[in-house]
Amino acid sequence: MDKETLSGDGTRIAYESTGRGPAVILVSGAMSTGHTLAPLAQRLGDHFQAVVYDRRGRGGSGDTAPYAVEREVEDIAALIDAVGGEAAVYGMSSGGALALRAAESGLSVRRVAVYEAPFAVDEQGAKERAEYTRNLGETLAQGRRGDAVELFLRLTGLAEAVIQGARQSPMWADMEAIAPTLAYDDAVMGDSTVPRDRLASLAVPLLAVAGGASPDWLREATRTVAEGAPTGTYRVLEDQTHMVDPDVLAPVLAEFFTS
């Protein structure tokens, strides 16, 4: 990241931008940094000033205790100020939940788009998420970062053999380094259910996108998010999974952000 700004509590937020035009801020999800969304930013750069950033506690950004979701919203506010005072916002996975928080909070967000924010859609899903929250808190409190990463990977549905293989990979150390931010994403997700009350008061257009090859519950969660907003639109991208192809997603976002 070649630029930085200061958030409301003085935390350094590292970011970079590509292209010119109206600003679009891209918000990454759990266990990722701004570089995760750099390929998407490159594809949006023909029409927008596409901004990626390291969320607090990750990459080149700082961190300030105690954590609160409101501080991450203030991070986005600082980025909006840094890029001209207004921006569209896109969020991936749990970053989508944070993007919604930013749009709902009254920031100068002109439009908001999310890809598969993983809200629970039934009682069983909510129970699993509550158990994850408890176990994650205990694991991080005991300093067991690797075990915290494992908890998250199991929550995503990865097979045990894949998780154990990941432990032996060169990327594991980087994953452990940002493991404490798993608690941040967990907090952003709230009680894990679709925030219907907040969505009902959303004052800007919303696009909620899901992959046609993703699990049914992710598509249902995405559809429910769209239906909860006064001006929400639901799109499904054929053959896409949670690891969406930037070449497929970018034109959809560009159309929405310019309409």
Kindly describe this structure.
With 259 residues, this protein is of the alpha/beta class. It folds into 2 domains: 3-119 and 194-258, Alpha/Beta hydrolase fold, catalytic domain (Rossmann fold), CATH 3.40.50.1820; 123-186, no CATH class. The protein has 11 helices and 8 strands. It has an 8-stranded mixed beta sheet with strand order 1-2-4-3-5-6-7-8, sandwiched between helices. It is globular. It starts with a strand and ends with a helix. The model has no long low-confidence stretch (mean pLDDT 97).
Under the CATH scheme, the architecture of the largest domain is 3-Layer(aba) Sandwich
- What is the number of strand segments? 8
Strand content: 15-25%
What is the CA-based Rg, rounded? 17 Å
Q: Alpha-carbon distance between the termini? A: 30 Å
Reading the helices and strands in chain order gives EEEHEHEHEHHHHHHEHEH
Number of domains: 2
**Low-confidence runs of at least 5 consecutive residues:** none
Biggest sheet strand line-up: 1-2-4-3-5-6-7-8
- Helical segment count: 11
